[in-house]
Design brief:
The protein is an alpha/beta fold. Helix content is 30%, strand content 24%. It has eight helices and 14 strands. The protein has a six-stranded mixed sheet with strand order 1-2-3-4-5-6. The chain has a six-stranded mixed sheet with strand order 7-8-9-10-13-14, with helices on one face. α1 links the parallel β3 and β4. The two termini are 31 Å apart.
Length: 215
């Protein structure tokens, strides 16, 4: 799916989106979706006519299994660095492994991912503004990335049937902190909300409708 500014939401990762973003240096991937999608992701990028050698890095919003599931395959085949927050790095194993429905082979793979990660520091990486969200509300240290008025927000925001929705409370470590932060976001200069779960949406008037219905 082609969005604004040449950004592509990869069709092979519809249930946990990977975004391919064209920068002056090449391309950046946001997140790594579910396990066992690595080959399909690279095939799709090639079919788009993009040289995979021009992909420079992978930025992780957080390290839930549906955001790092194909990371090992992508890193080993694309030969690129991967970045996440310090909090996510420190709790990589603790956060990723408890899900009972993850098969043992996936757990074994998760144990190898930490060796690839670099901790993000400061407020920018390349052309992206780094937005650090409050600690321990959904994951241990989720990051959002802002690029050309497009907000790549991981699980901070979700959508269903073309409308913005709250992340279900059962997935939040602290529901109160989550809502306080979410409702305080200044979205007036955001043109697109690019979340992991649900269709990416133009923020106007989607965000205003969401706020009016929930605050």
């Amino acid at each position: 799916m082609l969005l604004q500014n040449g950004v592509i939401s990869l069709d092979s990762t519809l249930k946990s989106h990977i975004y391919l973003i064209p920068t002056k240096k090449g391309y950046t991937l946001i997140d790594a979706s579910f396990p066992d999608l690595g080959e399909k992701i690279i095939e799709e990028i090639k079919k788009l006519g993009i040289d995979i050698k021009k992909i420079n890095n992978i930025l992780l919003t957080h390290t839930d299994w549906d955001h790092i599931g194909s990371l090992k395959y992508l890193v080993e085949n694309l030969k690129v660095p991967v970045y996440c927050s310090k909090e996510e790095y420190d709790h990589w194993m603790e956060k990723s492994l408890p899900y009972e429905f993850i098969e043992q082979k996936v757990k074994d793979e998760l144990l190898t991912y930490k060796e690839y990660a670099t901790i993000l520091e400061g407020n920018k990486i390349d052309e992206f503004e780094i937005i650090y969200t409050p600690k321990r509300f959904h994951s241990f240290g989720m990051i959002m990335f802002l690029w050309k008025n497009m907000l790549f927000c991981g699980d901070m925001i979700q959508s269903k049937a073309g409308e913005i929705m709250l992340t279900p409370s059962e997935f939040n470590l602290d529901e109160e902190i989550y809502k306080q932060y979410l409702f305080s976001l200044d979205m007036k200069n955001i043109d697109w909300i690019c979340q992991a779960h649900g269709k990416p949406l133009p923020s106007h008037p989607s965000w205003e409708k969401f706020i009016n219905e929930n605050v």
